[in-house]
Automatic annotation (TrEMBL):
Its EC number is 5.6.2.3. One of its GO terms (molecular function) is DNA helicase activity. Residues 199-504 form the SF4 helicase domain. This is Replicative DNA helicase. It catalyses: ATP + H2O = ADP + phosphate + H(+). PROSITE patterns: SF4_HELICASE.
Length: 510
């Protein structure tokens, strides 16, 4: 006999709806608490301040009580008096007086009042009963789905839908949070300033491993959603991996500076929806060992290069990077895995490559693609705030970039740009002029004479030399700081980004 069977007492029969005994049970409610709260509100409208943040009319089990509370709420928030006399007149005018029990019941509620000092407690009891009724309803939905009520959802999708519903129930209308004293907010601001002052380069957040990016952004800050966008072949994934790798190294450095023997907590989670985990690992190995990833895949490397490749892989094995290559992952599944990682290993940064390949929560059906992307970006921002870690989401750009003479991206180029731009704290674009210049190589057939062709070719070669191994990171939006362009070094053979120093050999920079 398993644990489920043990729930059935000898001789008892499961109820017809599949939930043991629920058909014989009444939904959780506390009518006395509802009456006592309404009585307190009618006796003294100031009691409303104790429940206004979290209680709504739909939280009442008795619909009559919910209707009375709604009337009280509407009058108080309009600056009007809400008592037995005014509510009686209002319900009489609307023809609903009999539906709420008549004037006798309104008067009876006053006798149920114990005292306004307890109004907050009554409100919390009512809200708790509401939550438990929602859990009962959710349980019935889960059971019905499991029995095949929605055949389009397989078992895995049902798990994700149930988890999303539980998360929404836990966060919607929550009474946590609220006002923070200015003194506390000031203390947090001073702590951030102190961290920036004591850190080389003035970085208060998590380091990206790129000097000029840290200087512009101040590092990666908890609860921020950063969008990294670009056209194909610009190097979005390579830059995101570089930042993730740099952040993981920064986590190790910070932990070891405090205690050389410390167990590092706070890894970097990379959700790679486009590339497999081994492809992403090959990119990192190629960058760090400076052995071409293409040659590695083709086996076109010398023994010396292979030995170096293996040596670097051993050195990198302790880096706290975690890769999830689940295709088309849902926002609820991503949240679950990040929570689990936070609990078991710690979490400092989340990278999603890329958000247009994600799916909204299972069980939701957005009307159009813009709504779908909006749900995803809002979900990512919620995860950043819930776990207090920065989230970097890569994004594709629309093809309208290619139709312009200057192909540097703009905010309007973001696919489904409204929701992405609105939810993001930082929007950055990767741009490499060298990629577009290479496509504009002059062809002799297009010129009338050899002299014009030679002149055009010389100019093209000079432009290519200036753009060679250079990239731009265009910060078009930053809630907490300046916008502008950061010039970076890019080595295509190793898909490697680095700091750009105009006066030193690039080989000296990691």
């Amino acid at each position: 006999m398993n644990a489920f069977d043990s729930l059935i007492q000898p001789g008892a029969e499961p109820s017809g709806n599949g939930l043991l005994g629920l058909s014989q049970r009444l939904p959780p409610s506390n009518v006395e608490a509802e009456q006592a709260l309404l009585g307190a509100l009618l006796a003294n409208n100031k009691a409303y301040e104790r429940v206004s943040e979290f209680l709504a009319a739909e939280h009442f089990a008795d619909p009559i009580h919910g209707r009375i509370f709604h009337a009280v709420q509407r009058r108080i928030e309009a600056g009007q008096l809400a008592d037995v006399v005014t509510l009686r007149a209002e319900f009489e005018h609307s023809g609903l007086l009999d539906e709420v029990g008549g004037p006798a019941y309104l008067t009876q509620l006053l006798t149920a009042m114990v005292g306004i000092i307890n109004a907050g407690e009554y409100g919390r009891v009512i809200y708790d009963c509401h939550l438990r009724r929602q859990l009962v309803d959710l349980g019935e939905v889960v059971v019905n789905r499991a029995f095949g009520a929605e055949p389009e959802l397989d078992g895995k999708a049902q798990l994700e839908a149930a988890e999303q519903a539980l998360f929404d129930l836990a966060t919607d209308g929550t009474t946590e949070g609220g006002m923070v004293t200015f003194e506390k907010a000031l203390a947090e601001a001073v702590n951030l300033a102190e961290r920036a002052f004591s850190t080389p380069g003035g970085v208060s957040g998590l380091s990206t491993g790129l000097r000029d990016v840290d200087s512009k952004l101040g590092g990666l800050h908890p609860s921020d959603l950063l969008i990294l966008a670009g056209r194909p072949a610009m190097g979005k994934t390579a830059l995101a991996v570089k930042i993730g790798f740099g952040a993981a190294q920064a986590v190790i450095r910070e932990a070891r500076d405090k205690d050389p023997n410390a167990v590092v907590r706070g890894g970097v989670a990379i959700f790679s929806l486009e590339m497999s985990a081994d492809q992403l690992a090959t990119r990192i190995l190629s960058e760090q060992s400076r052995v071409s990833g293409d040659r590695i895949r083709r086996g076109d490397i010398a023994q010396r290069d292979f030995d170096k490749f293996v040596e670097v892989s051993r050195e990198l094995s302790s880096i706290p990077l975690f890769i999830d290559d689940t295709p088309a992952i849902t926002i609820s599944a991503l949240r679950t895995r990040c929570r689990r990682l936070m609990r078991t290993k710690g979490l400092s940064l989340i990278i999603v490559d890329y958000l247009q390949l994600m799916r909204p929560a299972a069980g939701t059906r957005p009307e159009n693609r813009v709504q779908e992307i909006s749900q995803i970006t809002q979900g990512l921002k919620a995860i950043a705030k819930e776990l207090s870690v920065p989230v970097i989401a890569l994004s594709q750009l629309s093809r309208q970039v290619e139709s312009r003479e200057d192909k540097r991206p703009q905010l309007a180029d973001l696919r489904e740009s409204g929701s992405i731009e609105q939810d993001a704290d930082v929007v950055m674009f990767v741009y490499r002029d060298e990629y577009y210049l290479a496509q504009k190589m002059p062809k002799e057939l297009n010129f009338d004479n050899n002299e014009k062709y030679t002149e055009a070719l010389d100019k093209w070669q000079k432009d290519m030399e200036q753009a060679h191994n250079k990239a731009e990171l265009i910060v078009s939006k930053q809630r907490h700081g300046p916008t502008g362009t950061i010039r970076l070094f890019f080595e295509g053979e190793f898909t490697r980004f680095g700091d750009l120093d105009q006066t030193h050999d690039q080989d000296n920079y990691e």
